[in-house]
Prior knowledge:
Elements: H1 15-28, E1 34-35, H2 47-59, H3 71-85, E2 94-97, H4 99-111, E3 117-122, H5 127-134, E4 138-143, H6 154-160, E5 165-171, H7 183-194, E6 200-204, H8 220-223, E7 231-236, E8 249-252, H9 255-266, H10 274-285, H11 290-310, E9 325-326, H12 347-358, E10 360-361, E11 363-364, E12 374-377, H13 382-398
Helix pairs in contact: 2-10, 3-10, 4-5, 4-9, 6-7, 11-13
Pyridoxal-5'-phosphate (PLP) is lined by residues 39, 99-101, 125, 171, 175, 204, 206, 236, 238, 244, 249.
Amino acid sequence: MAFLADALSRIKPSATIAVTQMARDLKAQGKDVISLSVGEPDFDTPQNIKDAAIAAIQRGETKYTPVSGIQPLREAIAAKFKRENGLDYKPSQTIVGTGGKQILFNAFMATINPGDEVVIPAPYWVSYPEMIALCGGTPVFVETTIENNFKLTAEQLEKAITPKTKWFMFNSPSNPSGAAYSYDELKALTDVLMRHPHVWVLTDDMYEHLVFGDFVYYTPAQVEPGLYDRTLTMNGVSKAYAMTGWRIGYAAGPIELIKAMDMIQGQQTSGACSIAQWAAVEALNGPQDFIPMSKKAFEERRDLVVSMLNQANGLVCPKPEGAFYVYPSCAALIGKKAPSGKVIATDEDFVMELLATEGVATVHGSSFGLGPNFRVSYATSNDKLEEACRRIQRFCADCK
Ligand SMILES: Cc1ncc(COP(=O)(O)O)c(C=O)c1O
């Protein structure tokens, strides 16, 4: 439509939202659908956080807030970075946004000029390239391999950097693969970045708390303090405290960048919801016992899902260190006939046939930039997961 902006032709709708919608439609038609496509914890927000929000309403904390966030939240964020990541940020170096999504978008908006490149390891979270494209930048994808557990190597990063590279977009644990970088793996990447002083690091640490076993989490500026002056460390309460609907994300970084993001947000949405901000203060400063509880539940589910999917004919499912996703390969099923008689030519066909035949909703890997794979979100009950995995096993066995 001629009326619409050219920028729209550079982006596509979120594939995860599309699959979720199709699953909803099938459900509305009465089909028994198990959705493994959603990107949010199935737990309820902890009661102390809800109570803090209710108290904020009662106190009348219902007015506009400063654009970058209320002071108690910015102080809580600075304290969190010190406590959990060993990073020294002043509250003035932090910013609160309406979800991590807004933080990322405004960071790109504040920095990207036409032609600027952003290096993104694939598979990647679907919104990165679209946000970058909307801002006129060029996403540069670097495909990881299943053999390297979907992690970028130092050699790959070195090769991808050009004089036009503005950002290295880093996400650990990863949506969609669940891969998380150990200290040594991350240090290998930060060593490369130290040789390229024009490249900034945008690290999306949303899944920080969901790492399993004895894995120890690190963020780039912690591993390499030399990167502190060119790193934006982004995080949020959505996944850590089951607060996806509250829409609070945050970041910390060099003051000039934070001020630029503040300026954009000031002309856009202003401060995030005042009540949700007070809830986030409680999330960060209050009791933290929700985190180990959800971590334990997700670790059990990861083990269940990895084991059951590896028993399905033709699937290979690496065991990731974190998040609540696995990213199995369905390469061995490409070219086979689904029970409907349709030939599975792509991972999208695999996902659509699986949904139509067995009522299990997942997301095809090609939408995350690396296939043939599919993403399974295990943020649902063990009973549902077991049933869904049994259906996936049956579907794979029935592909001839
Ligand atoms: C990797 C990653 N980053 C950022 C976000 C955005 O989170 P928020 O709900 O805070 O906007 C998500 C949500 O799915 C995500 O998976």
